[in-house]
Each structure stands twice: as structure tokens, then as C-alpha cells.
Design brief:
The chain is α/β, with parallel strands linked by helices. It has one domain: Spore Coat Polysaccharide Biosynthesis Protein SpsA, Chain A (Alpha-Beta Complex), CATH 3.90.550. The chain has seven helices and ten strands.
């Protein structure tokens, strides 16, 4: 399974590129890449805004980078750029979710045995990674539907995931909470 890490956005609610903010001994993006590599077979990073800086971080890992020139159109454009680059089962992962647990990745993969896609929920909130069987690739690339609309047209297995499936860094308060929990696996339930 290939992880598609979305690292192309503008981070408009944060006021600066959230993926470049410090976390542990690196950045939010480097933590997300390391976590995905620990749990998936391969990883693609989709870049856009501040492409050079994201690619510099990605260069420290055995990953591929894909530039999405249409990143200003929003997350769907970046997601489709990543999907276009895969040929196996894939997981969509926003770059600011470094606390997804190994159990979240494992459970999502297991649900693909009996569903077209899988998605964690935490306290009723949809989370990531959203995982798809490779048979969805061509349909997604040709579909006019949003990703959420598409999920309603296929067999979706959902499960109760950890807080790491929804704990992103969209705002300074989110970043403070993420930073406080980083490095404390017991708190990520």
C-alpha cells in the first residue's frame, strides 16, 4: 500500500506553512512521513505551496515527490495528483496528521479485504487515513464527485480510530495540542 501525503496546501488558517512547524526533532511534515513509512509499503509526497521547502524535508526519506501545479484549486487537485502516481492500494493522509497510530493503519488495511475503502472515525468525526483498494484509482480520476461524495457511492468500512486520525494542526491552538501529545503514545487513544 502506498501512502499519499498531501503537503501542497496554503495553511491559510495557521498563517504560516503548518507542515514546516517544529515537532520533536524535526517538523510536522517529517514526523508524518516517518510515521507513514513505519506503517506502509511506500510513500508519495504531493507538494505545491512552498514546494522547495517540502521537497527538502522529503529528501531525507526514501519517498517520491509529486508536484501539483493546480494546488491553488484545493485539496482535491492534490489528492488526484497523488492518485495518478500510484498503481496499488493507497491511503490519503493530510501532511499534518503525524499521530495516526499503527493500529489505525492496520485496521484500515484489514477492512480493505471486505470493502472498497476504509476510514477511521474518532468521536463521530471522520478522520484519516482514508484507504482505497487500487480498483478505485481509475474511477476516482474520472469522477466529477468530491472525495466525500465518492465515498458514499462505494462500500466503506469505518472504525473507531485514535485521536491521531483527526488531530491536525490547522490553527495555533491545534498545533499546541498536537505538540503536547507528540511523543506520548499513551495519550493517543
Amino acid at each position: 500500500m502506498t501512502g499519499i501525503i498531501l503537503a501542497a496546501g496554503l495553511s491559510s488558517r495557521m498563517g504560516s506553512n503548518k507542515l514546516l512547524l517544529p515537532l520533536g526533532n524535526g517538523t510536522i511534515l517529517s514526523a508524518s512521513i516517518a510515521n507513514a513509512l513505519d506503517n506502509l509499503d511506500s510513500v508519495i509526497i504531493v507538494t505545491g505551496h512552498e514546494r522547495a521547502r517540502a521537497e527538502e524535508i522529503a529528501a531525507g526519506f526514501p519517498v517520491r515527490t509529486i508536484y501539483c501545479p493546480a494546488y491553488m484549486e484545493g485539496q482535491r487537485a492534490s489528492t488526484l495528483a497523488g492518485i495518478e502516481a500510484v498503481d496499488d492500494d493507497f491511503a490519503i493522509i493530510p501532511g499534518d496528521l503525524p499521530l495516526i497510530s499503527a493500529d489505525d493503519f492496520r485496521t484500515g488495511r484489514e477492512l480493505l479485504r471486505s470493502h472498497d475503502a476504509s476510514r477511521p472515525m474518532h468521536g463521530g468525526i471522520p478522520g484519516h487515513p482514508v484507504m482505497y483498494r487500487k480498483e478505485n484509482r481509475e474511477r476516482l480520476l474520472s469522477s466529477p464527485l468530491t472525495m466525500k461524495e465518492y465515498l458514499r457511492t462505494i462500500s466503506l468500512g469505518s472504525f473507531e480510530g485514535s485521536i491521531g486520525t483527526i488531530l491536525d494542526a490547522d490553527t495555533p491552538d491545534d498545533y499546541a495540542r498536537l505538540s503536547a501529545l507528540y511523543g506520548d503514545p499513551a495519550a493517543i487513544r
